[in-house]
Amino acid sequence: MSKLHRKVALVIGNQSYSKRPLTNSVNDANDLADALRTIGFEVTLGADCTHKKMANLIDNFADKIEDQDLVMFYFAGHGFQYKEQNYLLPVDADEKITREANIKFNSVNAQETLESAKSSGSGLHTMITPGGTLVQFACAPGRLAADGGGQDRNGLYTKHLLKQIVVPNQHIDLIFSSVGAEVYKESKGKQMPYRVSSIMIAENIYLNPIDANSKSTPAPKTVNIVT
């Protein structure tokens, strides 16, 4: 008899940057956290995080991860690529990153965040993912994602993620491929989400199983979903 994964998520939305503020990142994080809770995720939520707060959230979250967990990490905010590494920016980054030497001490390395979850320029660079990980960026490497604006409550990518992630009995690959297709369609080809997966599990993985025939089976290691 298979059993359900414990589902845990860390959701962070940063928008109150001093030089390049965003419009919808906190809405995106709050709305996704609500959606994930409705399908059984235990959610840790952070909004407008300084570097210290963001690092502490990630460390504390990673410490609680157990084998067989299905783990989701979501970040809405500014990110950039430097020397083939991806960095996620806290809201105090504008004041602290004044030269290249400051980057790794005042931003969050996305690859290291992935590794933490596994064991317990503009745009973003292609990432090599640890085993058992699915990563989806809101846009292709080296490109920029639409934050939304005007009357929009959510960014374009999160708007479609919110619709797809709660669909019952939807395989994880279909969830994220559907998000990508809808974003590409609505943006008329200007924004194309980019996905990398190293999940090597023969069984189906569902985020919202609602009957015995679609139960997510236990994985041989932690499954990480990073978006």
TrEMBL record:
GO terms for biological process: proteolysis. InterPro entries: Caspase-like_dom_sf, Caspase-related_regulators, Pept_C14_caspase, Pept_C14_p20. Residues 5-81 form the Caspase family p20 domain. GO terms for molecular function: cysteine-type endopeptidase activity. Transmembrane segments: none annotated. It holds the Pfam family Peptidase_C14. This is Caspase family p20 domain-containing protein. It comes from Rotaria socialis.
